[in-house]
Amino acid sequence: MTDIVPFDEGAISRAVDVLRCGGLVAIPTETVYGLAADAANGEAVAGIFAAKGRPSFNPLIAHVSCIAMAERHVDFDPVSRALAERFWPGPLTLVLPVKDVQATGRPVHPLVTAGLATLAVRMPEGRVRDVIKTLDSPVAAPSANTSGRISPTSAEAVAADLGGKIDLILDAGPCGVGVESTIVKIEGDTAHLLRPGGLAAEEIEKFLGQRLIRADHAAAIQAPGMMASHYAPDAAVRLNVSAVLPGEALLAFGPNRVSGAEHAKAVLNLSESGSLREAASNLFDFMRRLDQSGASAIAVEPIPVEGLGEAINDRLKRAAAPR
């Protein structure tokens, strides 16, 4: 059985010991819980793919404790460097060229990049950076769930999905942001949004003074979270509903309900006040709970697309995609 321990000082050294031995640790970040392995250990990284049932062509994010650690492995262009200095630590991932010769005796393993010439890099908020700093190596850490399923925002959700398949879960309570990081790639003078996430695209666009080019969903995978079907519950998902059908649960938003809401099998409101930040933090937990209600489908009320609503709608569209 997988151990669940409070994320205190003792847990940091214990997690580092597990990682150094090639084990897997579920780590709490501000976005979602991640399934971490030493990014330089190929066997450990392969363990991530095995535990999640994740296809090997889907790259992973390398989490670092500081910009200097990232610079051992990737080359920063001036714009990406400015983005890192402005938004790290935080829910922003940058896709950067891997150095020809990584400035370390323990380079990031090619499994992390899925054979690409780029590496997705992020500096998370919070004490999880103490684990990475003590390990003195980036950790590869996709969401700590079975591939394609709902991402976990609590230690309990990790245990319910991957318990018995991983070595340790660090419990720091619920995640504050609740959706994965925003992923950006700079190419020349153009900034590409590969995945909307916990940092609103508008904030990045304001900082850069230019619009982010949204990724073509039919294009080749360049970063995590770009597969068409992802974040999926067992129940079917219907989006932007105007009415709830018999046997459905309702994922609501805001103060007003759609027709038939009173007959829904279960109802959870992402935010009574219409706060997109609150909705993002509740999204995966509420989807998981409605999925456990026994409903035939989850009906989702319309959610605005601006701000964090772009990331929320992205996750919902992938959850509703054919599987």
Automatic annotation (TrEMBL):
It comes from the Bacteria. Its main location: cytoplasm. Residues 9-199 form the YrdC-like domain. It catalyses: L-threonine + hydrogencarbonate + ATP = L-threonylcarbamoyladenylate + diphosphate + H2O. PROSITE patterns: YRDC. Gene3D superfamilies: DHBP synthase (3.90.870.10), Threonylcarbamoyl-AMP synthase, C-terminal domain (3.40.50.11030). The keyword Cytoplasm applies. Required for the formation of a threonylcarbamoyl group on adenosine at position 37 (t(6)A37) in tRNAs that read codons beginning with adenine. This is Threonylcarbamoyl-AMP synthase. It comes from Daeguia caeni.
